[in-house]
Amino acid sequence: MTTESTVEAFRKAESLVAQRRPLEALHVLGPVLEIAPDKPSVQLLAGRAYLFSAQFQRAELAFLRVIELDPSDHYARLVLGRTLQRQGRLSEAQTQVRLAATMYPDPAYQEVLGEINAHIALDPRSSE
């Protein structure tokens, strides 16, 4: 795969994720993941596709890889928090989203944090 075709495949996968066609995106992204597994942008896109296709453990691993490669990536922490939330791991989700909101004080991040906090308040056992 040439550099040009790798970029083209990445862009196509981005478009498919935006269209909420994550399984198709993962199919297109497969060769890119093999060539560039240590590119945060590639792992982030794969993580989003995994998340949108309810492959939560794979999404979690992809987002953790992004954070390993770039600890300052606030968006990776936000979507990792969402992934953990979807798995019912609210305490871990709260930690990641709180970090993301601290790193990037955006109202949307605060809203996600508030949602997780509300779930924890309704069921304190969920934060264990």
TrEMBL record:
UniProt keyword Acyltransferase present: no
Ranges: TPR repeats: 40-73
Keywords per UniProt: TPR repeat
Transmembrane segments: none
Organism for this UniProt entry: Haloactinomyces albus
UniProt-recorded name of the protein: Tetratricopeptide repeat protein
One Pfam family here: TPR_19
The UniProt record lists the keyword Transferase: no
